[in-house]
Structures are given as structure tokens and as C-alpha cells.
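User: Please write out a complete single-protein record containing the residue sequence and its fold in C-alpha cell form, without commentary.

AI:
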Amino acid sequence: MLSKDINLDTHIADVVNLIKWESLENVCLVAWSLAGYVGSGALESIGDRVSSIVWLDAFIPADGQRPADTAAEAVRKAIQVAVDKGEPGVRGLVKISSDAVVAERDRAFVESKATPHPVGAYLQPVKLTGALQKVAKKTYIRLPRYPLPSFDKALADCKGDKSWTTFELPDVGHFVMLDASDRVSELILQAA
């Protein structure tokens, strides 16, 4: 379903509509990586249905920020190439060669599932009024093996804000849901 029409609002609407149409309440919203933008945007509409959040090695955007603004340098370059070529998507992971991303045992699986990500989702500014800050129970989990200054800043900001609980898992990569699924599941359940 890759298309030039897919943007950040599309992803936000997917989350909002799922929660609304399933009549979900008391939700623990988990956002991983780029989904920090999606979750932040979704909270603007469904914050009253969310009792806790877990930002898992995820961006914590400011109002008006675009995912492209905080992405890793290689991703920013890939976004620009896609824009220049008029392509609808950014091909992210082609070949993974680092434990910072995912353990060697899981690389072939991740590479086999990697597809282009809609370029429009990187380019659209997020619209925020502070709904994320209103969530009572907030957890940030940082995976510092994956080097990204935006995530380091998010962790530092959360550590400096008493309304956040923070954790660091220094021995696993960005795809923690594969590399340490039991540990991350326990932290999410604890945060819920």
C-alpha cells in the first residue's frame, strides 16, 4: 500500500481509529522508534483513553518537528534521495551488519521483512499541544547500543522529569522486541 499519499497523519489515524473503533479504554500505548511521532500525534485525539505510555527507543518530538529532522544521518540522506527521485518510499534496512540494530541470529528475518517506508511520513510536521505530557504514567526505555543522539536526548529529558520512569538496556540492539522479548515485555507490563 505504499503511496505518495501516505504521511504522518495516515499513521496517526490508524492508531486513533483502532482505539476508537475497538472502544478501547485504559490503554498502555507503546511506541518504538519513529512511532514516537505517531504515538505523540495519536495522544492528541485519544489521550483520555490512554492510562500509560512506553516510549521504546523512540523519538519524543516537539510541535512542528518532522521525523526527518531527528532521524539518523543515513536515513536523512535516504529520504533526500527518495524525494529527489520522486519515489514514494525510503528503503531503510537492506543489509544489517550491526548488533546495534539487531542480534546476528535475527538479521536474516529482519532483512526479509524490510520494506520501504512512506517518505511522506518523514516529511510532515507533527501537530502537538501537550497531550503526551498529560499522561499520568510514562516510561522511556533506551537501548544505548543503538547510537542516536535524538534518543539520548529523549532519555536525558525524561530522566530530568519526575513524571517519567526510565530504563536502559545496554546489551541489546534497537530491535529489542526480537533480541530480548521477555525483558522488554516485562518492562511494558510493569509500566502498564
